[in-house]
Records
---
Amino acid sequence: MIVVTGGARSGKSTHAERLLAGQCRQVLYIATAQATDEEMAARIARHQQQRPAHWRTWEGHQNLGAVIRRHRQSQEGVILECVTTLIANLLFDLSGGVSPDELDFASLEGVIHHQLDDLIEASLMCPMPVYLVTNELGMGITPENRLARHFVDIAGRANQKLAQAAKEVWLVVSGIGVKIK
């Protein structure tokens, strides 16, 4: 399991794709983004166009450990893009439309970490490389609102958990990957 992290538009997805393409011809690309508006649909389309046509794509954000176990073919490496979007989608699903002021973030984080534990287990058991792309959110200012503060905290702890379990960790800055583990 290899974690690739960095800021928004740092080149982390491209870096992970390049690393995996050097190791595997066949790839299962797990895409966690959802087209919630036109701008997001355009972002997703750009990512799709950049990937080799022979890579398979699985779209979703729940139970991704099971996806790796059941949907990955024998010689496929895996890229999961992106853990931060996965966390955002899970928070949205789990909140059930409740106001952020009423959410029990500790409980929500427990459910998210349960899914991440399963993802880590599946990734570590996979005989082919698994790249997890995630955003590093902790280098900016503390967000103003409660939901954003908890999101940054949950994502930061998730990234720590992933990095601890990973064989390698890459930090990508301005399109340049630096191996930090």
---
Amino acid sequence: MLLITALGVTPLVAQPEDSGKDAASIFHQRCSGCHGQDGKAQTFVGKRVHAADLTSQVVQQASDAALSDVIKKGKAKMPAFGEKLGAGEIQGLVAYIRQLGSR
């Protein structure tokens, strides 16, 4: 009974902004379905929704603030993640996107 109660309460407890997930795991969990593991958006869904190729010059030349803004607020068919990710997680994703462009 205690375990059931604990499991029921866990989602209600506020999680720290950076809850131990690194940018790569966040990307793979939340972004790779459309943008692909390599960021090139060659997934079935990515092609259907015309997801951005994160390795492209257009994306790589965008400022960190612009990329953060897209992650927070969404763009076109991309959902907003500002309510789901903390500022540190979003900064980590921007850094991860930069790494994708250098591969």
